[in-house]
Design a protein that fits this description.
Layout (H helix, E strand, L loop, with lengths): L2 H6 L19 H4 L6 H5 L14 H16 L12 E6 L5 H12 L3 E5 L13 H11 L2 E6 L4 H5 L7 E6 L5 H14 L14 E6 L6 H10 L6 E7 L8 H9 L4 E4 L11 E3 L3 E4 L2 E4 L17 E3 L20 H6 L1 H12 L15
Parallel strand pairs: 1-2, 1-3, 3-4, 5-6, 5-8, 6-7, 8-11
Antiparallel strand pairs: 9-10
Helix pairs in contact: 4-8, 4-12, 5-12, 8-9, 8-12
Length: 363
Amino acid sequence: MSEEIEENRQTPFLEPPLDSEAVRPEPSDLFHNNPINFEVLQELEGVNILEATQFSFEQITELCKLAAILEKIEVWPYHPLDGKIAVTAFFEASTRTRISFESSVLRLGGKVISIADGTTTGQAKGESLSDIGEMFNAYADIVIMRHTETEAPDQILENLRIPLINAGNGSGEHPTQALADWYALLKWNPSLAVYPGTGGKNLHLGILGTPGSMRAVKSFLLMALQFSSHIKKVTIISEMADPFGEDVIGHLRNADIVYEVKNDIQETVADLDIIYMNSIAFLGDSYRSLGARYKLDANSPLREQAVILHPLARLDELDKSLDRTPHNLYFSQAHGAVFIRQALLLSVLGRLDTLPDLESIKP
Protein backbone atom coordinates (compact mmCIF):
# COMPACT_ATOMS: atom_id res chain seq x y z
CA MET A 1 0.00 0.00 0.00
CA SER A 2 1.39 3.40 -0.89
CA GLU A 3 2.07 5.88 1.88
CA GLU A 4 -0.41 8.36 0.40
CA ILE A 5 -3.26 5.86 0.39
CA GLU A 6 -2.40 4.81 3.95
CA GLU A 7 -2.62 8.41 5.13
CA ASN A 8 -5.95 8.88 3.40
CA ARG A 9 -7.48 5.67 4.68
CA GLN A 10 -10.66 6.58 6.47
CA THR A 11 -11.43 5.38 9.95
CA PRO A 12 -13.09 1.94 9.97
CA PHE A 13 -16.50 1.99 8.34
CA LEU A 14 -19.37 2.75 10.64
CA GLU A 15 -20.04 0.00 13.13
CA PRO A 16 -23.50 -0.58 14.59
CA PRO A 17 -24.13 0.63 18.13
CA LEU A 18 -22.42 -1.41 20.84
CA ASP A 19 -25.68 -3.01 21.94
CA SER A 20 -26.64 -3.96 18.37
CA GLU A 21 -26.01 -7.18 16.46
CA ALA A 22 -26.95 -5.63 13.11
CA VAL A 23 -24.81 -6.95 10.25
CA ARG A 24 -22.02 -4.70 8.95
CA PRO A 25 -19.98 -6.93 6.61
CA GLU A 26 -16.31 -6.13 6.11
CA PRO A 27 -15.88 -4.65 2.58
CA SER A 28 -12.33 -5.97 2.09
CA ASP A 29 -13.58 -9.58 2.15
CA LEU A 30 -15.01 -8.90 -1.31
CA PHE A 31 -11.82 -7.78 -3.04
CA HIS A 32 -9.09 -9.51 -0.98
CA ASN A 33 -7.18 -11.88 -3.30
CA ASN A 34 -9.71 -11.01 -6.01
CA PRO A 35 -8.39 -8.00 -7.98
CA ILE A 36 -10.66 -5.82 -10.08
CA ASN A 37 -10.90 -6.48 -13.81
CA PHE A 38 -10.94 -2.91 -15.07
CA GLU A 39 -11.55 -4.03 -18.65
CA VAL A 40 -15.01 -5.18 -17.59
CA LEU A 41 -15.77 -1.82 -15.97
CA GLN A 42 -14.53 0.06 -19.03
CA GLU A 43 -17.35 -1.58 -20.99
CA LEU A 44 -19.72 0.77 -19.14
CA GLU A 45 -18.09 4.01 -20.31
CA GLY A 46 -20.67 6.29 -21.95
CA VAL A 47 -23.47 3.74 -21.47
CA ASN A 48 -27.02 4.70 -20.45
CA ILE A 49 -27.99 2.84 -17.25
CA LEU A 50 -31.66 2.00 -17.72
CA GLU A 51 -32.48 -1.49 -16.43
CA ALA A 52 -31.12 -4.30 -14.31
CA THR A 53 -30.89 -6.84 -17.12
CA GLN A 54 -28.31 -4.78 -19.02
CA PHE A 55 -25.61 -5.74 -16.50
CA SER A 56 -23.63 -8.93 -16.90
CA PHE A 57 -22.63 -11.00 -13.90
CA GLU A 58 -19.05 -9.79 -14.35
CA GLN A 59 -20.06 -6.12 -14.49
CA ILE A 60 -22.09 -6.43 -11.28
CA THR A 61 -19.31 -8.18 -9.37
CA GLU A 62 -16.56 -5.84 -10.59
CA LEU A 63 -18.66 -2.79 -9.68
CA CYS A 64 -19.18 -4.27 -6.22
CA LYS A 65 -15.46 -4.95 -5.78
CA LEU A 66 -14.65 -1.36 -6.75
CA ALA A 67 -17.34 -0.10 -4.36
CA ALA A 68 -15.81 -2.18 -1.56
CA ILE A 69 -12.43 -0.54 -2.12
CA LEU A 70 -14.01 2.91 -2.24
CA GLU A 71 -15.68 2.11 1.07
CA LYS A 72 -12.27 1.42 2.60
CA ILE A 73 -10.33 4.49 1.41
CA GLU A 74 -10.75 8.24 1.23
CA VAL A 75 -11.00 8.88 -2.51
CA TRP A 76 -11.68 12.62 -2.46
CA PRO A 77 -7.98 13.70 -2.49
CA TYR A 78 -7.70 12.30 -6.03
CA HIS A 79 -10.67 14.34 -7.36
CA PRO A 80 -11.59 11.65 -9.91
CA LEU A 81 -14.64 13.56 -11.21
CA ASP A 82 -12.92 16.94 -11.29
CA GLY A 83 -14.47 19.02 -14.09
CA LYS A 84 -17.55 16.80 -14.42
CA ILE A 85 -21.09 18.07 -13.78
CA ALA A 86 -24.06 15.84 -12.98
CA VAL A 87 -27.70 16.91 -13.24
CA THR A 88 -29.89 15.14 -10.67
CA ALA A 89 -33.30 15.66 -12.26
CA PHE A 90 -35.94 14.36 -9.88
CA PHE A 91 -39.45 14.83 -11.22
CA GLU A 92 -40.69 12.59 -8.40
CA ALA A 93 -40.03 13.00 -4.69
CA SER A 94 -36.91 11.29 -3.34
CA THR A 95 -34.70 11.48 -0.27
CA ARG A 96 -32.19 8.61 -0.22
CA THR A 97 -31.63 8.16 -3.95
CA ARG A 98 -31.13 11.81 -4.82
CA ILE A 99 -28.92 12.61 -1.83
CA SER A 100 -26.98 9.37 -2.30
CA PHE A 101 -26.17 10.28 -5.91
CA GLU A 102 -25.31 13.87 -5.02
CA SER A 103 -23.08 12.73 -2.18
CA SER A 104 -21.38 10.30 -4.56
CA VAL A 105 -20.63 13.01 -7.12
CA LEU A 106 -19.46 15.57 -4.57
CA ARG A 107 -17.20 13.12 -2.71
CA LEU A 108 -15.57 12.30 -6.06
CA GLY A 109 -14.83 15.96 -6.73
CA GLY A 110 -17.60 16.57 -9.27
CA LYS A 111 -20.31 19.21 -9.21
CA VAL A 112 -24.09 18.85 -9.08
CA ILE A 113 -26.99 20.75 -10.62
CA SER A 114 -29.92 19.57 -8.51
CA ILE A 115 -33.55 19.55 -9.57
CA ALA A 116 -35.29 18.35 -6.43
CA ASP A 117 -38.81 19.24 -7.59
CA GLY A 118 -40.06 18.75 -11.14
CA THR A 119 -42.59 21.54 -10.72
CA THR A 120 -39.71 24.02 -10.90
CA THR A 121 -38.79 22.93 -14.45
CA GLY A 122 -40.24 23.82 -17.82
CA GLN A 123 -42.15 20.53 -17.80
CA ALA A 124 -44.58 22.17 -15.38
CA LYS A 125 -45.40 24.57 -18.24
CA GLY A 126 -45.77 21.79 -20.77
CA GLU A 127 -42.20 21.49 -22.06
CA SER A 128 -41.41 18.01 -23.40
CA LEU A 129 -38.78 15.78 -21.83
CA SER A 130 -37.08 15.46 -25.21
CA ASP A 131 -36.57 19.24 -25.31
CA ILE A 132 -35.30 19.21 -21.73
CA GLY A 133 -32.85 16.51 -22.76
CA GLU A 134 -31.52 18.71 -25.56
CA MET A 135 -30.86 21.47 -23.04
CA PHE A 136 -29.11 19.11 -20.64
CA ASN A 137 -26.57 18.28 -23.35
CA ALA A 138 -25.17 21.79 -22.96
CA TYR A 139 -25.30 21.93 -19.18
CA ALA A 140 -23.76 18.72 -17.85
CA ASP A 141 -21.83 15.50 -18.47
CA ILE A 142 -24.39 13.04 -17.10
CA VAL A 143 -28.08 13.08 -16.12
CA ILE A 144 -29.50 11.12 -13.18
CA MET A 145 -33.29 11.17 -13.52
CA ARG A 146 -36.29 9.96 -11.56
CA HIS A 147 -39.74 10.38 -13.02
CA THR A 148 -43.30 9.32 -12.32
CA GLU A 149 -43.77 8.14 -15.91
CA THR A 150 -42.46 4.74 -16.96
CA GLU A 151 -41.78 6.02 -20.49
CA ALA A 152 -39.73 9.02 -19.28
CA PRO A 153 -36.26 7.59 -20.07
CA ASP A 154 -37.29 6.87 -23.67
CA GLN A 155 -38.66 10.41 -24.03
CA ILE A 156 -35.60 12.23 -22.72
CA LEU A 157 -33.28 9.99 -24.75
CA GLU A 158 -34.85 11.24 -27.98
CA ASN A 159 -32.43 14.18 -27.78
CA LEU A 160 -30.11 13.43 -24.85
CA ARG A 161 -26.57 12.62 -26.00
CA ILE A 162 -24.82 12.46 -22.62
CA PRO A 163 -25.23 9.35 -20.42
CA LEU A 164 -28.48 8.86 -18.52
CA ILE A 165 -28.83 6.96 -15.25
CA ASN A 166 -32.38 5.87 -14.50
CA ALA A 167 -33.03 6.56 -10.80
CA GLY A 168 -36.59 5.20 -10.99
CA ASN A 169 -39.20 5.48 -13.73
CA GLY A 170 -42.78 5.03 -12.55
CA SER A 171 -43.48 1.31 -12.17
CA GLY A 172 -40.56 0.48 -14.46
CA GLU A 173 -37.15 -0.08 -12.89
CA HIS A 174 -34.60 1.18 -10.39
CA PRO A 175 -31.32 -0.44 -11.51
CA THR A 176 -28.94 1.38 -9.16
CA GLN A 177 -31.06 0.34 -6.18
CA ALA A 178 -30.60 -3.24 -7.33
CA LEU A 179 -26.84 -2.66 -7.48
CA ALA A 180 -26.94 -1.35 -3.90
CA ASP A 181 -28.98 -4.40 -2.86
CA TRP A 182 -26.57 -6.89 -4.39
CA TYR A 183 -23.55 -4.99 -3.13
CA ALA A 184 -24.84 -5.55 0.40
CA LEU A 185 -25.41 -9.24 -0.33
CA LEU A 186 -21.98 -9.77 -1.92
CA LYS A 187 -20.31 -8.22 1.14
CA TRP A 188 -22.42 -10.48 3.36
CA ASN A 189 -21.54 -13.56 1.30
CA PRO A 190 -18.48 -12.95 -0.94
CA SER A 191 -18.84 -16.41 -2.51
CA LEU A 192 -21.75 -14.94 -4.48
CA ALA A 193 -19.13 -13.05 -6.51
CA VAL A 194 -17.73 -16.35 -7.81
CA TYR A 195 -19.23 -17.74 -11.00
CA PRO A 196 -20.37 -20.42 -11.18
CA GLY A 197 -21.33 -20.77 -7.55
CA THR A 198 -18.83 -22.80 -5.59
CA GLY A 199 -21.38 -23.81 -3.00
CA GLY A 200 -24.10 -24.85 -5.40
CA LYS A 201 -27.73 -23.76 -5.35
CA ASN A 202 -28.21 -23.33 -1.63
CA LEU A 203 -30.01 -20.02 -1.07
CA HIS A 204 -33.76 -19.53 -0.78
CA LEU A 205 -34.62 -15.96 -1.74
CA GLY A 206 -37.90 -14.43 -0.60
CA ILE A 207 -39.14 -11.24 -2.24
CA LEU A 208 -42.04 -9.38 -0.70
CA GLY A 209 -43.90 -7.30 -3.26
CA THR A 210 -45.19 -7.19 -6.79
CA PRO A 211 -42.48 -7.01 -9.48
CA GLY A 212 -45.05 -5.94 -12.05
CA SER A 213 -45.72 -2.64 -10.25
CA MET A 214 -42.86 -2.17 -7.78
CA ARG A 215 -39.74 -0.95 -9.56
CA ALA A 216 -37.21 -1.72 -6.79
CA VAL A 217 -38.62 -5.23 -6.42
CA LYS A 218 -38.56 -5.77 -10.18
CA SER A 219 -34.94 -4.65 -10.58
CA PHE A 220 -33.80 -6.70 -7.57
CA LEU A 221 -35.47 -9.83 -8.95
CA LEU A 222 -34.11 -9.35 -12.47
CA MET A 223 -30.58 -8.82 -11.13
CA ALA A 224 -30.98 -11.91 -8.94
CA LEU A 225 -31.21 -14.00 -12.11
CA GLN A 226 -27.50 -13.30 -12.71
CA PHE A 227 -26.83 -15.20 -9.47
CA SER A 228 -29.01 -18.20 -10.32
CA SER A 229 -26.09 -20.60 -9.78
CA HIS A 230 -26.34 -19.77 -6.06
CA ILE A 231 -30.14 -19.71 -5.70
CA LYS A 232 -32.20 -22.86 -5.23
CA LYS A 233 -35.57 -21.06 -5.18
CA VAL A 234 -37.20 -17.65 -5.38
CA THR A 235 -40.45 -17.15 -3.51
CA ILE A 236 -42.52 -14.07 -4.32
CA ILE A 237 -44.83 -13.02 -1.48
CA SER A 238 -47.60 -10.96 -3.01
CA GLU A 239 -51.32 -10.34 -2.66
CA MET A 240 -51.66 -10.85 -6.40
CA ALA A 241 -52.01 -14.27 -8.05
CA ASP A 242 -49.89 -13.08 -11.00
CA PRO A 243 -47.49 -10.47 -9.63
CA PHE A 244 -44.92 -10.51 -12.44
CA GLY A 245 -45.97 -8.90 -15.70
CA GLU A 246 -45.06 -10.32 -19.10
CA ASP A 247 -41.48 -9.06 -19.30
CA VAL A 248 -40.51 -10.38 -15.85
CA ILE A 249 -42.13 -13.78 -16.37
CA GLY A 250 -40.25 -14.11 -19.65
CA HIS A 251 -36.92 -13.58 -17.91
CA LEU A 252 -37.87 -16.04 -15.15
CA ARG A 253 -38.80 -18.75 -17.63
CA ASN A 254 -35.48 -18.33 -19.42
CA ALA A 255 -33.47 -18.54 -16.19
CA ASP A 256 -32.33 -21.74 -14.53
CA ILE A 257 -34.26 -21.03 -11.36
CA VAL A 258 -37.26 -22.39 -9.45
CA TYR A 259 -39.87 -19.83 -8.42
CA GLU A 260 -43.23 -19.78 -6.66
CA VAL A 261 -45.83 -17.30 -5.41
CA LYS A 262 -47.20 -17.14 -1.85
CA ASN A 263 -49.65 -14.64 -0.37
CA ASP A 264 -48.55 -14.76 3.27
CA ILE A 265 -44.95 -14.29 4.42
CA GLN A 266 -45.63 -16.33 7.56
CA GLU A 267 -46.07 -19.45 5.40
CA THR A 268 -42.50 -19.41 4.15
CA VAL A 269 -40.37 -17.11 6.33
CA ALA A 270 -38.84 -19.98 8.35
CA ASP A 271 -37.27 -21.38 5.15
CA LEU A 272 -35.85 -18.14 3.72
CA ASP A 273 -32.15 -17.23 3.71
CA ILE A 274 -32.57 -13.76 2.19
CA ILE A 275 -35.71 -11.66 2.57
CA TYR A 276 -36.19 -8.61 0.35
CA MET A 277 -38.97 -6.41 1.71
CA ASN A 278 -40.73 -3.34 0.41
CA SER A 279 -43.53 -1.24 1.76
CA ILE A 280 -45.17 0.62 -1.09
CA ALA A 281 -46.14 0.12 -4.69
CA PHE A 282 -46.32 3.05 -7.08
CA LEU A 283 -49.55 2.88 -9.06
CA GLY A 284 -50.07 5.65 -11.57
CA ASP A 285 -50.01 8.77 -9.44
CA SER A 286 -50.40 7.26 -5.98
CA TYR A 287 -48.84 4.80 -3.53
CA ARG A 288 -50.36 1.74 -1.91
CA SER A 289 -48.98 0.01 1.18
CA LEU A 290 -49.13 -3.71 1.90
CA GLY A 291 -51.25 -5.40 4.53
CA ALA A 292 -50.69 -7.32 7.75
CA ARG A 293 -49.75 -10.63 6.08
CA TYR A 294 -46.55 -9.00 4.88
CA LYS A 295 -45.04 -7.82 8.17
CA LEU A 296 -42.00 -8.98 10.15
CA ASP A 297 -40.78 -8.27 13.68
CA ALA A 298 -38.24 -9.73 16.10
CA ASN A 299 -40.71 -12.47 17.07
CA SER A 300 -41.13 -13.74 13.50
CA PRO A 301 -39.78 -17.30 13.02
CA LEU A 302 -36.74 -16.27 11.00
CA ARG A 303 -33.88 -18.67 10.27
CA GLU A 304 -30.89 -18.02 12.51
CA GLN A 305 -28.66 -16.89 9.62
CA ALA A 306 -31.36 -15.14 7.56
CA VAL A 307 -30.80 -11.54 6.52
CA ILE A 308 -33.34 -8.88 5.60
CA LEU A 309 -33.03 -6.21 2.92
CA HIS A 310 -35.29 -3.20 2.46
CA PRO A 311 -34.75 -0.27 0.05
CA LEU A 312 -36.42 2.11 2.50
CA ALA A 313 -38.43 4.16 3.34
CA ARG A 314 -40.30 1.67 5.48
CA LEU A 315 -43.69 1.67 7.07
CA ASP A 316 -44.83 -0.85 9.68
CA GLU A 317 -44.06 -3.94 7.57
CA LEU A 318 -40.49 -3.97 8.98
CA ASP A 319 -40.66 -3.47 12.72
CA LYS A 320 -37.89 -1.51 14.45
CA SER A 321 -37.46 -4.42 16.86
CA LEU A 322 -35.41 -6.05 14.07
CA ASP A 323 -32.98 -3.13 13.81
CA ARG A 324 -30.52 -4.42 16.42
CA THR A 325 -30.70 -8.08 15.44
CA PRO A 326 -28.29 -10.08 13.22
CA HIS A 327 -31.04 -10.18 10.58
CA ASN A 328 -30.61 -6.47 9.84
CA LEU A 329 -28.66 -6.09 6.60
CA TYR A 330 -30.81 -3.16 5.46
CA PHE A 331 -28.77 -0.47 7.24
CA SER A 332 -25.59 -1.77 5.60
CA GLN A 333 -27.52 -1.86 2.32
CA ALA A 334 -28.44 1.83 2.69
CA HIS A 335 -24.95 2.92 3.75
CA GLY A 336 -23.32 1.12 0.81
CA ALA A 337 -25.43 2.88 -1.82
CA VAL A 338 -23.02 5.84 -2.05
CA PHE A 339 -20.04 3.58 -2.82
CA ILE A 340 -21.73 1.46 -5.49
CA ARG A 341 -22.99 4.62 -7.17
CA GLN A 342 -19.49 6.08 -7.01
CA ALA A 343 -18.19 2.96 -8.75
CA LEU A 344 -20.86 3.28 -11.43
CA LEU A 345 -20.23 6.99 -12.01
CA LEU A 346 -16.48 6.46 -12.36
CA SER A 347 -17.11 3.72 -14.90
CA VAL A 348 -19.78 5.49 -16.98
CA LEU A 349 -17.84 8.78 -17.04
CA GLY A 350 -14.58 7.07 -17.97
CA ARG A 351 -12.61 8.23 -14.93
CA LEU A 352 -11.24 4.91 -13.66
CA ASP A 353 -7.72 5.93 -14.66
CA THR A 354 -7.77 8.82 -12.16
CA LEU A 355 -7.85 6.46 -9.16
CA PRO A 356 -4.77 5.55 -7.10
CA ASP A 357 -3.12 2.14 -7.34
CA LEU A 358 -6.06 0.15 -6.03
CA GLU A 359 -4.28 -3.20 -6.39
CA SER A 360 -1.95 -2.16 -3.57
CA ILE A 361 -4.83 -1.79 -1.11
CA LYS A 362 -5.00 -4.59 1.43
CA PRO A 363 -7.53 -5.37 4.15
